[in-house]
Amino acid sequence: MSNIRSFQNNKRKSAVDHSDSSNGVTKAKQIRLEEKNNKVVKDINVEGFAESRAVEIQALTEVVKRNGGNHMAFQKLPRHMRRRAMSHNIKRVPRRLHDAVRSELEKTKPPGKRPSRCYRRRPKNLLAEYERRKRKIGWLETHIWHAKRFKMVQRWNYKLPLHPNEKSIRACYRAVNKHCLMQDVSFESYIEIKGPQQRILQELSHLTSNKTGPTFASQMTLSGTREGRLTLYTYDGYPCSAIGPVTFLWQAVYPHDGIKALDNGSTLWICCHPSFYAQALEEVTKCFNKNTNFDSSAVQDNTCEEIRVVSLKDDLVKFRLYGPASNVVLSEVLQVADIENIEIKNEDNKENKEEPASSSISGSSTDAGADKQVGSLSLKDKDADVSAGFWWKDFYSSTASRSYFLQQSDCWMQVRKCNSPAEAPSNCLLALTVRDPRLLLPPKKTKVFNANREAAVGVLPPELFTAGLGVSPLWSAEIRQQVKVTKISEQRLNELKSKHTFPGCPLRLRDKESRIPVILIQRPGSSSVSSTSHLGYASGWDVLIPSGWAMAFWVALVYRGARVGGVREARSIALQAGSLCKPFDFPDSPAGREQLQTESEALQVRHDRRPPAKRPNYTKLGFQSPFAPQWSSLVNEWRIKTTTLLEKLHISEPTVESNKGGFYVLRDRKCLRLLNSTFTGNSGSVRSNNRVTKNGKGGENILKILSSDAWRQMTEQHLFALVPVLLSIRHRGVPKAFGHICLPTLEDFIKLEKDKSFGGPEEKKHIDPEAPVRKEERKVRLQLRKKKKRGKGSKNANIQSLPTSRDFKEPSRTAEETKNTKEPEADPNIKNEMNLRDARDVKLLGHNSRMVCGFVRNGDFDFGRGHGTGLGFCSLAALLHLLEQQGQRKTYLVLFRNPTSFQYRFASLSIVV
Amino acid sequence: MQASGHTADDEEYTLHKRMPPRLPQRLNDVYITEKTHFKAQESKCQKLLDSGNEVIIHGLGKAVNRAINLALQLKERGNGTVQICCQTSTVDLVDELIPEADGDVKTSMRSNSAIHIRVYR
């Protein structure tokens, strides 16, 4: 009985009537009766009846159960059972459907009504909404300013401006070259390490290598007058496991006890890019924990033997200014504040005199009362509560600190007169305490110029740059907090402005005005000795500001005519200055790898979206992986290839197989300079002893050079290394990302010598094994289309009869199909085959007519040089071959080929040191 | 290259030349570089000369020859209408020697000759 109940209603009726009589004995009788009466059936054996129709019943139940489409349960009811407003009142639905309907209604409940725009735009609600969005992903303080004007992208856990919405590539170049471009780089955050200097240096030495240049212990940075830069590695990980490039500051040492006790306190700030910030922080904390066996996993705040590692994420704001006019722009914005304590009395008196006058004009008694309160407050301050808002009174109370302040302001007075930031000492620090930039804002946006200004007297005297320039209250967390808290709100400021006696005149708040500590850090830009771009290109200042003040300074800078760039601009500046851009140009670090992967995935998706006829066929072009460079196979294949050359040079092969199928970028300064001197004919060092290489150089000579001690050492150590190279295009062409850098053949040189305007050889068309298959498919598709036009009846039969490898249900490709039909890789089997083939037979080097020696990482047209420029990475072993091949030539040439082209182009090569 | 006595630690330092000091640039000041295309500089100067009747051409060190050459070219083109007034000076330059190891930065001063040619009608 129980199983019967689950069957459908109409069947159940008959079943209930006759179920009692169903048993084994009566079965035979029934059958007999049925046979006799033949027409009238009185009893049915329900079990048997149901069993024999089980499949149909099952199917019917399924059909009834399924609502089909977007129907609710009660919509499936027969017409006579429907009632009005069933969806509104559940009691109108038959009771047995209550549960189903209730669950359905819950699912389809509409979200609450969106509040009105008016409500949403109220400042309080808008801010709450912004706070909500910020919780998901980091925002810069200038986010809203940028969001109105820039293409915003999500990168490195921040929402960052990528590029301005206006058409501005050339304008940005001009700003860097002639005026001022700036970028908000607050996403680069600091790690603070406090403790005894010797211990810090000792532990951190594991994360760096002195082969890559000056380390944390460098004399030039220890005194706190210069910023240092280096590459971080994992613990004793040099040269294989790089983390990324960082800059660092040591807190300036105070030679007196007025401000801070010196004994054990050294503070180091390490500035990391957000793409590897977490990794660097973890590595640094681990490094200090290792020796003391501390097992604290707290990364944020870590204490061990007086060494504290603190993350200063979002505690500081950093603006990066490029270009010669950044001096003028900054000199307008950064006006040195008045820190004299003595004048307080006079000021108070003056204020008291002034205020009644203003209030009498405005005629508001409450205002005067408020001002009197403030005046009395400032009198109280002198007693004890200096820290309430006037931190500078406390900080500059000692004569020593005041003398530093004077030194700093004197220096700034001189430096700001210079025509270019590159005239200041490279990477020097200059701490300042400046006035509130909102009070100095010009009424309209202007563009400040160098011309018709006070001129610099000549070279900046070296006496100006004393040790005290780096002394800044910005190092103290308390003061940063106070500066942030005591900021006068925009609203209050506007109120004050509106009550000002002479509208339009700058406000004079005297003591009430905030004093903001900032640190200026010079960037020297490109130096003409080592790079090909012009002297001082991309030089400028980095401005460090306490958090909370970003918009005040930002708007002030913009109002002086500084153009704003985003991440894209920063990258193109780095390319034109011939320097590496983090994290893009660090392919051996995890951050760089991740960046590369996201880029190549995006390219792959873009490629797959297009129909085959509208996208390049990379198989024919001979590009095995057009979206991601195959660094490790490049390095390994070249290493195998160099064995003969090494024998010729009598160099033993590297015995230590240090890397596990990996590669790394060569950052040994000595090696890079050696390479550079050989390639460009001059070395970056003071006296270039290596100039000999260019004089009367013959084939044997180059071999001699290559087998010299320095070279031998380098090849023995770094045969797995990639070398960062800059391509300077000879004739035509612009390199693009992931293009090939190739070795030319002798024929190319012969052709080039015959014809100076020879553009470059062409790659032969490769055979695409999938082409005939696709051709067949197209044939089928056309046939099907014809059939469909004639009549749809015989379609299915035809498909089966036609010889196809894949199923075609539709005669023409839909967008979805296009997406699924990747050229040869569409079928997973085929893809696997291809991959296998790649792995087994098709090697990188033998694949094309010219041997690949590296890949382009970034390339573009260079406005400064007037031709294309590219940054790429070559295998060191390949460069050895290049030197051997072109030993007789005056200049070393390579070929490059973009992924979408058969055309090779000539380029000359220089090493990024 | 320069008259500093750092011969012992040649390999230990990288030379970084600071930007030479410059007077504030008016619109008709042209600083000549070796890297810019000569024809482009010439046409730029010619345009400035035609528009304002005065150009001041500055050349430093290696670019002195170029500056003179350019001024003479402008004079020749002017068919006798263009005159030249020439002044020489000495510019102090600073070289920074940035250590490759953990040393301190050294600076060295040197002087270089410069030329300022006023080309006018």
From TrEMBL, chain A:
Location, primary (coarse class): nucleus
Domain POP1 C-terminal: 721-913
Domain Pop1 N-terminal as annotated: residue spans: 49-114, 126-195
Basic residues composition bias: residue spans: 110-119, 781-793
Residue stretches making up the POPLD domain: 540-631
Keyword Iron: no
Basic and acidic residues bias spans: 99-109, 347-356, 758-780, 806-834
Region (Disordered): 1-30, 99-119, 347-372, 590-621, 758-834
Keywords from the named record: Nucleus, tRNA processing
GO terms for cellular component: nucleolar ribonuclease P complex; ribonuclease MRP complex
Highest taxon in the source lineage: Eukaryota
SUPFAM superfamilies: Folate-binding domain
Biological process according to GO: tRNA 5'-leader removal
Name of one Pfam family that matches: POPLD
Subcellular location: Nucleus
PANTHER family named in the record: RIBONUCLEASES P/MRP PROTEIN SUBUNIT POP1, RIBONUCLEASES P_MRP PROTEIN SUBUNIT POP1
Name assigned to this protein: Uncharacterized protein
Organism the protein comes from: Candidula unifasciata
Organism phylogeny: Eukaryota, Metazoa, Spiralia, Lophotrochozoa, Mollusca
UniProtKB/TrEMBL annotation, chain B:
InterPro entries: Alba-like_dom_sf, Pop7/Rpp20
Membrane-spanning ranges: none
The UniProt record lists the keyword Cytoplasm: yes
Entry keywords, A to Z: Cytoplasm, Nucleus, rRNA processing, tRNA processing
Gene Ontology MF terms in the entry: nucleic acid binding; ribonuclease P activity
UniProt-listed GO biological process terms: rRNA processing; tRNA 5'-leader removal
Quaternary context: Component of nuclear RNase P and RNase MRP complexes. RNase P consists of a catalytic RNA moiety and 10 different protein chains; POP1, POP4, POP5, POP7, RPP14, RPP21, RPP25, RPP30, RPP38 and RPP40. Within the RNase P complex, POP1, POP7 and RPP25 form the 'finger' subcomplex, POP5, RPP14, RPP40 and homodimeric RPP30 form the 'palm' subcomplex, and RPP21, POP4 and RPP38 form the 'wrist' subcomplex. All subunits of the RNase P complex interact with the catalytic RNA. Several subunits of RNase P are also part of the RNase MRP complex.
Family (UniProt): Belongs to the histone-like Alba family.
Protein name: Ribonuclease P protein subunit p20
Organism (species): Candidula unifasciata
